Every structure is written in structure tokens, then in C-alpha cells.
Amino acid sequence: MLSRVAESLFWMSRYFERAENTARFLDVNFNLLLDLNKIAHIENPSYWVALILVTSDKERFNSLYDEYSARTVTDYLVFNKNNPNSITSCIGLARENARSIIESISSEMWEQVNNLYHYLQSVTPQFVQNDPYGFYKEIKNASHLFQGITDNTFSHNEGWDFIQIAKYLERTDNIARLIDVKYHMLLSEAQSQPELVAGSEDIIQWMAVLKSCSALEAFRKVYLSKIDPDNILRFLILDRTFPRSINFSVCAAEDALWRISGSSRHRYVNNADRLIGKLEAELSYTAIEDIFSKGLHHYLEDLEQRLVKVGEQVHLTYFAYHTPEIESSDIEEALPFTGIAGGRANWSQAQQHQQQQ
Amino acid sequence: MIRFFERYEAETSQFFDEVISKEGSPRPHYDKMLHRFSQFSVDDIKARREIVNIFFRNQGITFTVYGEEEGVERLFPFDLIPRVVPAHEWQTIEEGLTQRITALNAFLHDIYHGQKILKDKVIPAELILGSQHFRREFVGVNPPLGIYIHVTGSDIIRDGEGNYLVLEDNLRTPSGVSYMLQNRQAMKRAFPVLFDKYKIRPIENYPQELLRTLQEIGPVSRRDPNVVVLTPGIYNSAYFEHSFLARQMGVELTEGKDLVVNNNKVYTRTTRGLERVDVIYRRVDDAFLDPLVFRPDSKLGVAGLVNAYRKGNVTLANAIGCGVADDKVIYSFVPAIIKYYLGEDPILQNVPTWLASNPADLKYILANLDSLVVKAANESGGYGMLIGPESTIEQQENFAEMIVANPRNYIAQPTISLSRHPSFFNDTELFGCHIDLRPYVLYGKTVTIVPGGLTRVALKRGSLVVNSSQGGGSKDTWVVDE
Questions:
Q1: What does B311-372 look like in DSSP terms, one character per residue?
Q2: What digits encode the pLDDT tens for the residues A14-33?
Q3: What fold is seen in the domain B91-172+206-350?
């Protein structure tokens, strides 16, 4: 498979997953605020700040808006084209990547990306405000439909595996961020209002975290209704069967990487396999107490760093393929680590406009 | 015959109408179509329009308009009324194009070898050797089977009497064949009943024929050649077509950065290392193919490609340097070229052409700018053109200056009133639109022309320009057995 095609499959998948996760964060936040309004007077801004923290975009956000509110945060995360992680930007980039490999994916996959893209072009802020539930549901369903179409119309070979790697790396990263932000919120509140930490608001917040991973029902089946932070973290980080847990997602990414390279347990053939294998092995033998003793925030931060490293190695191993003796120095320039993101999209646009007869 | 065609004004005193004869009656091969359309209401047409639009949008069949804001994609305008070409007329086109392409290929081979035709003074040598598309570096290079022009798309028009004339030979990177194929799919969806009433020759095998042609011209030493399509990239206006053809042929679509040359052999970069490439169907202009030989700033090409090609390790379709034969000046010599190499009279005529490089012609051109069409020799896509009757005095003076400054670069032709075909306006009424026809010719071991082509239509009322970049659209083209 062409390295460029593999890379575009990877980024198409990754941006799609990112859009879905953003929709999940927003959806849950709306619900959360509706619930919390009933039991306490909530300072809304702190909840909206949390969503910006999830995406590590505080600086860019502050350069564009003066306040944290439902309106500004929704605009930033759903519509803003200056935010490369907004839902509109992500789907636009997923579509650009898909378009650049339209001959490699199934036409059903293309139609689905394209449909969602056109749907987003037609949506107004007013529409989202009136029916946030309906809108986010549409995004989530579109993503699920895309995954289902991919699984059922696209050969499960190397290309499909790249799609899986991207999806699960992105998902792992998002779950980690979500938990981390919740931790931050609780911490800051605990400092200012210690009595709230164990209160009902806390439980509602933790339920919101579960909900944003579609994990509440699955969690209850395992832990019944005993909603306490330890169990929730155990579930979201270490459960091996729930598809939106960190452990599950890392295992799935590992499987896909190993299928591509032919690696197996105890024997890796490249650094991407080695790093993901190490991560998976550690997760398998970690207890939640180990994480606490290391410090949750510290643990998650470390995890995010390691995911970045895995991504870098996937890039070097498969996308930046070159033989040193014939390649000049410009390979890094030609293939930045972003698929079709802003940088690469424009570099030769003018020349591509050559006339066709 | 009610509604649409009843209200249609063919204006046959001024134009050759494809559907209605001079006597005012429908031509026999349009009988069934008129009958079928007489059963449709405006709502029926709108419903079918919707089917077609959804089909095109879902397929991502859009083109990009240059000069507008980045990323502006439009649906390619499509007219619902198909054009019908009866079998006996098609036969003339087929034979005429085969003859023409065979002769042009012989001409290219000669130009890049002995240059006999120049020594015999059939064509002034300076016209060839001074052409910006003449590639001196390829004199003496032998492409497999001696073929240069593997894929061509000649533009054919009909004059006031209905004669088929060749307007342009597009020998470099003709586009539009994907629209030909997709238009057919769209029509099948929207008009299955009408479709069933005609014996329409199929065109769906074009991608297989293209692949077969490309495999036939692979380097002699390579069995089962690996074919790839080379595109400038997703921002090219014809990108959809490049990816469509790659997908239909089941071959890789590559960009310049996917390819690498090592030891005069071409490879693709894959997730598993390098893979040898034997034939490149390139939709990139000569000038961008290889930064070491042509434009050094090209980001679309592959360093070393030209040497690999010269060594015979890879075949390019079309060959480098074909542009010398589809120059609008050389066009005027094609009848002489056919006579010279084949000893035959041309089956399809040219449009009369005056060359500004010829002093007598130049005088005539300058005196008649208000009635002629003037074209720059090396432009395509409807750019660099003056349509005399529609131009202002200022534009004419402007062109006069450019022509005098660089006569080699200009030709002039009479304003031909292209034939017209009824087309929908707002789905509510029909009006006559000027059309042309672009059949696609494949040249491997044999010459193959799938029966049909892209009928381009000037959907702006009264406009003569059919190029998609200038607001033109297209219709499905049916070659029917009577």
C-alpha cells in the first residue's frame, strides 16, 4: 500500500474519531448543566472551561473569545474554522484525506464522509442551540455509521488496520484527557469548597464522565449502582472488554499494529510495535492503586506522551518510508505529522492548478 | 409531441439543430425520445433532476473553479436530454478519428526521428523546431510499439450543414472521460424506460480498454507491467477523474511524492518498501514531470523520471513531447499530414484556419477581427480566445497588438455556428444550446474508440464556449443502432 494512502487512511479515521469525541464532550456537558442547575447554583463558566481544557486549546480560545459560555464554547468546538479541532474542521479534514484517496476507500465510505460534511455545512448555531441533543446524536451516529460501513465494505487488510490504529490511538487519548480534566475540576473545587467533593454533585459529574464514553450502562452491569471514583477509574482505564476504555483501545491498536507487521508477543519488529506492546503489557498488570500511588494526573500525562511517541513511530515506520541512499533531505518537509492538515494542503496547490485539456 | 418540444424553437434557418430538421420535423433517431418526453410534466423532470443531482453529489463529481475562493466545488452542470448519434454517422467519426490519430502518431514518430516531413518541406521546419512543445531531448527515443499518443480526446463540432469537423486534437492530457461514464450512469438511473427503448452501444468498458492499452505499451522487458496513474493532486480541477480512472482500473493513484527513481528505475513508496512501476498514465504536463529536466521548481514530478523513461525502463502515456502535434498552428497542417503519411484524403475535415505567422493570412486576420475567432496556439480550456462577433473594439485592438507581437502564437478561424441541441432551462422549458463532441481514442496495439464521448454544451444562452471552466455543461451521448 502506498505510504501516502496509508497515512491518509490514518488521518481520515483519526479526525473522524476526534469529531465524535468532541460531540460527546459537548453533549454530556449540556446534560450535566441541566442536572446540576437543580441542586446547586453552578458557576457555568467553570464547566465550559473544562471543555476547552480537554482539547488543550486554552490559548487559542482566549485569543478568539472574551468569555467561557455555552455560546462561545459551542461555537469554538463545533463551528470555528480557526480551531483545527472543531467538529467542522475535523470533518473537513477527514473529508480532504478521504478525497485524496477516494479510489482506495469504498464509495460507501466516501458517501458517508461527504454526507456528514454537507450536513455540517447546512447546520447553524441556532439549530444547535435549539436541539443540542439532536445535533450531537447526529454526529455520533454519523461516526458509528462510518465505522460500520468501513467494517462492512472495506477489506480487512492493511488499510483497515491503519484505520483501526488511528481510531484507537485517538480514542485512548480522548479518554485520558477527559478523565484528567474531571480530576482538575474536582481538585480546584475541593480547594475552594471542600464540602462538595463527596457530595451529590460529584457523583453527577462522574456519571457525566461515564456517559460521555457511553459507559454508564456497561459500568452498572459490572459495579451495579456503586458509583464511586475508584470503580469508575478502574472501569475507564483498566477494563479489557469495554470499547471505550483505555485498556481495550490500547489492545485494539496493538492488534492492528501487529497484524500489519507480523509482530507477536515477545517479538517485535519495529519501534511502534515495541512501544504499544510495552504500554499494553503495563496496563494489563496495573491495579488502580498503582495509578493512585503514582498520581492520577501524572499517570495520564505520561500516558498521553507515550501515545504521541507511538504515533511518531507509526509515522516513521510506515508513512515516511524512504531509502536513505536515494532520498534527499526534504522528506520531513514533504510529510509533516498531520496528514492533510493546513500545512501540507497548500504546499503545491498553485502548481496543481495546471490546465487540463 | 406536447409540452416541452412543442414550445421548443429550433431556429433552423440560422442553426443546424440536432433534433429538428430544416423542414421542422424531428429527425428519425429522436422519435422515441420526443415521444417519451411528451409524457413528462415539469414535476417529472424536476424529480429526475433530483435523482441526477444526488447521484453526482454522492459520487463527489464536482470540479473546482480557479480564480474563485479556495475550495469552491461545483456540480458539473448536466443536461437531462441525451444526444443521439445514429450508427452510420458514428462510423464516419470512428473511421475519421482512427485515420487522423494514426497519421498524427506517424508524424510524431517522424518528428522525433528522421524529420522527413520537414526535409520534404510539407511543414516549415521552423514551426516545429520553434514550438515550445518540441522536446529536443527526445529525438531518437523509441517508445514501445512506436506509439506516442495513447490517449486522445478530439473535439468535434458540426457546422451549419451538419458536417462533422475536427476542431482540436487534444494529444497531451485530455480530460472528461469520467463525465462520459458517469453521465451514462446518471441517465440509466433517471430514465430507465427511455434507455430501454434504444439500442445504445455500451461505453462501460472504457476503463478496461484503457488498462489493456496501458499494459500493451509497457517496457518490452517487463511481463505483467505495473500501471499507475500520476495526478498533480487533489487541488487539480480534474482530480476526480484521475482517482475515478485509477479506481475503475484497479491501479494505484500516485502523486509525484509517491514515486522515487533509483538507478533509472521508477518505484512507488509503500508501507512495505519500494515497488517497481512500469507504466505511468500521467495527467501532469511535460513541464512538471521532472524537476531535473524541466521546471526545477516543480513539486509535482519525480526527479530522474525522464532518464528512466529515456532508458526504456518506464513508459509514459502519453509520451513526452506530444504537444508539438496538437498545437493549433500544426492543426492546420493535419490534412497534409494525413496525405503525407497515409496517402489518403481526410475523412473528417478541419475548420478553415488562418495562420498569423503567414503574412498574407495575418493581413486577412487583422482586417477581419470582428468576424473571426482568434486563438492562442498553446492555450486550452477556452482561455486566450477572442470571439470576434462578441468582442468589443478595445478587445480587438488588444488582440491585434498581441498577434503582431507574436504571430507564431496565433491562429484564426471563421466563427462557426456550432450545431444546437435542445437543453433544459430551469427544468421548465427547452432552448437550443451549442454543443460539441469529444470521443476518446485509445492507441495501443490497435486503435480503440468506445462508441460515444462527452457532449459538451454551452448552457449559457447563446454562448459558444462549451468548456466547463467557462460555464459549460454536458449531456450523455448515445450511439444507437437503428
A1: TTSSEEESPTTTHHHHSHHHHTTHHHHHHHHH----SSEEPP-EETTSHHHHHHHHHTTTTE
A2: 999 999 999 998 888 887 77
A3: Rossmann fold (3.40.50)
Question: Residue B267 and residue B276: Cα distance in Å, rounded?
Answer: 4
The pLDDT value recorded for residue A230 is 87
Choose the closest CB to B270 out of A1, A260, A335. Answer: A1
B382 torsion bin: left (phi>0), alpha (psi -120 to 50), beta (else): left
CA–CA separation, A41 and A22 (whole Å)? 26
Contacts of B175 in chain A (CB under 8 A): 356-357
Judge: B236–A354 Cβ closer than 8 Å, yes or no: yes
- The class that CATH gives domain B354-414 is alpha beta
Q: Quick one: CA torsion of B305, B265, B244, A354, rounded to 10 degrees?
A: -10
Q: Which residues contact B7 (CB under 8 A, 6 or more apart)?
A: B429, B430
DSSP calls for A189-217 = HHHH-GGGTTSHHHHHHHHHHHHHTT-HH
Residue B6: pLDDT band with limits 50, 70, 90: confident
pLDDT digits (tens, 9 = 90+) for B424-469: 877 888 889 999 999 999 999 999 999 999 999 988 766 666 665 5
Question: Same CATH fold, B354-414 and B91-172+206-350?
Answer: no
| Beta-sheet strands, E only, within chain A | none
Other CB atoms within 10 Å distance of the CB of residue B442: 22
- The domain limits of chain B are 91-172+206-350, 354-414
B7 pLDDT tier (thresholds 50, 70, 90): confident
In the chain, the amino acid numbered A311 is G
Ramachandran region, residue A185 (left: φ > 0; alpha: ψ -120 to 50; beta: rest): alpha
ipTM above 0.95, yes or no: no
Q: What is the model's pLDDT at position A323?
A: 45
The cell for A237 is 482505564
pLDDT value at residue A324: 41
Contact B272 A1 (CB under 8 A): yes
Model confidence at B109: pLDDT above 70: yes
CB burial class (10 A; 0-12, 13-18, 19+) of residue B375? buried
Q: Answer left, alpha or beta for residue A343, where phi above 0 means left and psi between -120 and 50 means alpha.
A: alpha
CB–CB contact B247 A103 (8 Å): yes
Specify the DSSP class assigned to residue B473.
E
Preceding amide of B318 cis, omega within 30: yes
Q: What is the pTM of this model?
A: 0.82
Distance of CA A266 to the CA centre of its chain: 29
Please give the grid coordinates belonging to residue B188.
440509466
Cα–Cα distance measured from residue A289 to residue B72, given in angstroms and rounded to the nearest whole number: 55
pLDDT given for residue B130 in this prediction: 83
Query: For cell 492520577, what's the residue?
Result: A296
Helix (H/G/I), strand (E/B), else coil: B253: strand
Is B234–A100 a contact, with Cβ atoms under 8 angstroms apart?
yes
Q: How far is A2 from chain B (nearest CA, A)?
A: 4
| B233 contacts on A by Cβ (under 8 Å) | 100, 348-349, 352
Neighbours of B208 (CB within 10 A): 12
Cβ–Cβ below 8 Å for B383 and A1: no
Residue with cell 497542417: B333
Helix A296-314 and helix A158-192, axial crossing angle in degrees, nearest 10? 160
Q: What is the end-to-end Cα distance of chain B in Å, rounded?
A: 21
Contact B60 A99 (CB under 8 A): yes
Query: What local confidence, expressed as pLDDT, does residue B167 receive?
Result: 93
The SS3 of residue B118 is: helix
Interface of A with B (CB under 8 A): 1-6, 96, 99-104, 107, 110-111, 114-115, 118, 158, 260, 318-319, 321-323, 326-327, 334-335, 347-349, 351-357
pLDDT at A103 over 90: no
